[in-house]
Amino acid sequence: MPPVVLGFGWCHSGIQEGCIYQRPPYQALMASRCGAAQRVLRLASHDGSIARIPLLVRSLKGGGAEAFSAYGYGGLCGDPCCIADVDLHNLKMFLAKEGICCLFLRHAPFLGNHEFWPDSVLEVNRRTYEVCLSHGAGFDALLSSLPQKLRASVNRATRSGLTVEAADLFSWDHRLEAFHRLYEARMCALDSEPFYRFDLPFLQSHRKLLGGACRLLVVRCAATDSVVAGALFLIDEEARHVHYYLSAANEYALRCQGMELLMIAAIHDFGMEGFSILHLGGGHRLDETDGLSRFKRKFASKRLEYCVSRIICDQGTYDYYRELLPLRYPSLFLIADARGETS
Questions:
Q1: How is residue 121 annotated by DSSP?
Q2: Which domains does the chain carry?
């Protein structure tokens, strides 16, 4: 049988299905950060099934536009929808007619939604990790089930006077400010790309837009009565998933295994709340030799492939806009990113 040809169009409203990264509050958060407009691409099959792709569409200096998944994860949601080569061709034509010269998709490994795309547009970017959570085990039982090295890390952190605290409604702002100071210092030390140097108002806007779906855990040092590490988590109540989102620690916390303590506390606490999966995200390198990959791998029950798609809808237009203005970061696919306009 010939493949079912899909029809493409724009939805008039945001979506409610999919993961937390795909839904309107998070999309609005990142649209503001990127100077982009929220759009939802609609994929309709002849059998009546509908799939959707949340996108951010950004106008380019000098004309034209580009579309991309928000920072984090995105891609297809809704009804299962296999995209054949003919559909990919038609998608490129549709977006090109809409003035969009390229499309960058960050597929969601925990949804497996990259599997609906042709291999020709899939690129394994890195591995991500997830933890299967236990609903009934107490902290001591969890600790006894850990590998010896992790138990030693937790014991070292507690002997160093470190404890993990959850920010409630009344302590959120104060603790977020402390966490942001750690985060800002860490990003500067790593000489990270400007996009990732999130300022305090941007972090505060997570709480405003996501509400209780954004949680903050911090590590406090008893000796100095100060926050020495922390992490933001995104909560997907419908799927019963939790996502490890942003983290930072000072040198003392790293030396005393404070992040290991924080992660084990998160695994325990979210498991006790009845969540089933803690998705840790990935590291920095596909070969998993970097420190962040090694850290996350210690806790993981499962390893997933995180795929991206870099799709040029109109090659001539894409090349024209890449050559129109100087590129500060020519290795980046999106034009505004390559120009350094998104910092």
A1: G
A2: 7-127+306-339 (3.40.630), 134-275 (3.40.630.30)
